[in-house]
């Protein structure tokens, strides 16, 4: 007969079922990067979107700030197994940014200052699922967390929310980015524990 600790059954989970399998809750905001922190001033920051046909769209920092902003509160999940609940960001929805971009592509490569890349299906950036954020908790996004602007795709593992974003390249076919080439899962759904190839 097994031993059951008092209170083991019937206790409400602190995360209300929002914690994906294999994850633990943290109050901190760990800093993890593939290389050195990039420091990009807003005076030289620029974002480009290049379609599969080579058509290029560009936004300066002032252009980005002129777009309507949203303030989503979302849970974020790192592939290293931490989850942080109820994080609040401010930024521009990809629905707004890509509204006038004509593309038939199915995939996007996020490209960053410093050379980091990560691939995503275009559908995962639309319909209110992704933002280019420039504030965290009401404050300007610090460089250690991807400032001045990063991608935020909270329904996927956090490596897909690329720091120091400088561009989105539309692709007809999927191709792996930095961590995906090194063995991380090409999609990265935390609820399916898609951490590595074969997961």
TrEMBL record:
<dbReference type="InterPro" id="IPR036374">
    <property type="entry name" value="OxRdtase_Mopterin-bd_sf"/>
</dbReference>
<feature type="domain" description="Oxidoreductase molybdopterin-binding">
    <location>
        <begin position="40"/>
        <end position="179"/>
    </location>
</feature>
<dbReference type="Pfam" id="PF00174">
    <property type="entry name" value="Oxidored_molyb"/>
</dbReference>
<dbReference type="InterPro" id="IPR000572">
    <property type="entry name" value="OxRdtase_Mopterin-bd_dom"/>
</dbReference>
<protein>
    <submittedName>
        <fullName>Sulfite oxidase-like oxidoreductase</fullName>
    </submittedName>
</protein>
């Amino acid at each position: 007969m097994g031993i059951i600790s008092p209170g083991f059954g019937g206790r409400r989970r602190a995360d209300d079922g929002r914690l994906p399998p294999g994850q633990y809750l943290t109050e901190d905001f760990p800093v993890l990067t593939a290389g050195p922190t990039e420091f990009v001033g807003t005076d030289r920051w620029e974002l480009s979107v290049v379609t599969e046909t080579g058509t290029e769209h560009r936004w300066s920092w002032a252009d980005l700030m002129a777009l309507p902003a949203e303030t989503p509160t979302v849970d974020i999940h790192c592939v290293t197994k931490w989850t942080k609940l109820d994080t609040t960001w401010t930024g521009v929805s990809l629905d707004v940014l890509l509204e006038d971009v004509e593309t038939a592509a199915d995939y996007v490569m996020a490209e960053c200052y410093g050379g980091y890349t990560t691939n995503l299906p275009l559908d995962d950036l639309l319909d209110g699922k992704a933002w280019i954020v420039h504030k965290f908790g009401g404050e300007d996004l610090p460089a250690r967390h991807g400032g001045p602007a990063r991608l935020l795709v909270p329904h996927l593992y956090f490596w897909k929310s690329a720091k120091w974003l400088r561009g989105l390249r539309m692709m007809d076919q999927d191709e792996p980015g930095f961590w995906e080439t090194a063995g991380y899962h090409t999609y990265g759904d935390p609820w399916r524990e898609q951490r590595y190839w074969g997961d």
